[in-house]
Design brief:
It contains four helices and four strands; from the N terminus they run H-E-E-E-E-H-H-H. The chain is an alpha+beta fold and about 220 residues long.
């Protein structure tokens, strides 16, 4: 057998060698934009905006490839993902807030248990604190009255036409100092009144929380 015949026989065997790969290959069925059905052994192009089906060599459907999304569909998908992300973030924040509120509530209960044995004790402590502040307020008011009387006396001396220029200058300095001290007492009294309001408000909140969180819930008959 010469070389030429050997080469020709070898070329005749090539198609038969390719048959098994063709037989075992998957077949793709897809429809193009014009509605034409195609059967290929290679995946359909991404430009085929339709659902694609994968068939085996017996024509049995093995898989379904979804159609590529259009730009509008991709945009809607991104919007939906962003909405889900925001919703997830909101839920996480809400959960964190509830956990923090629970911790604060537990801390408040422990504080009330430690500070008070009953509602009556809250009221007693409130009244004692108010009495102390009221006493301090009364002392400051008396001091203001004393300073005011001294101011009136010096103001009368300043108005006396017989006062010398040197005394008039001294009276003016004393009046300025008295005005400053009177203003200080008045500001102090204002702060003390605000402190009394805070004491009352805090006691009211303590009583409300104590009755709601600490006192046992009565059991019905």
């Amino acid at each position: 057998m010469d070389i030429a015949q050997t080469i020709r026989k070898a070329w005749l065997l090539v198609p038969w060698l390719l048959v098994p790969s063709l037989v075992d290959a998957q077949i793709y069925r897809w429809v193009d934009d014009a509605g034409v059905v195609h059967f290929t052994t290679t995946p359909p192009p991404e430009t085929a905006h339709r659902e694609r089906r994968v068939l085996d060599r017996h024509g049995i459907e093995r898989d379904v490839l979804p159609a590529p999304m259009t730009p509008e569909e991709r945009e809607r998908q991104e919007v939906e993902r962003e909405r889900e992300r925001i919703e997830m973030q909101r839920r996480e924040q809400e959960q964190a807030r509830r956990i923090e509120e629970g911790r604060a509530l537990n801390a408040r209960v422990r504080q009330l248990h430690h500070a008070f044995a009953s509602v009556d004790e809250i009221i007693e402590q409130r009244d004692r604190r108010l009495a102390l502040v009221a006493n301090t307020l009364a002392l400051s008011a008396n001091q203001e009255a004393t300073l005011q009387r001294e101011r009136d006396r010096i103001a009368a001396q300043l108005d006396d036409p017989r006062a010398s220029p040197e005394n008039r200058e001294r009276y003016r300095r004393e009046l300025a100092d008295l005005d400053r001290r009177i203003a200080q007492e008045q500001a102090f009294q204002q702060r003390q009144r605000a402190a009394m309001d805070d004491i009352r408000a805090q006691a009211a909140a303590d009583i409300q929380d104590y009755e709601r969180l600490v006192l046992p819930v009565p059991v019905g008959p």
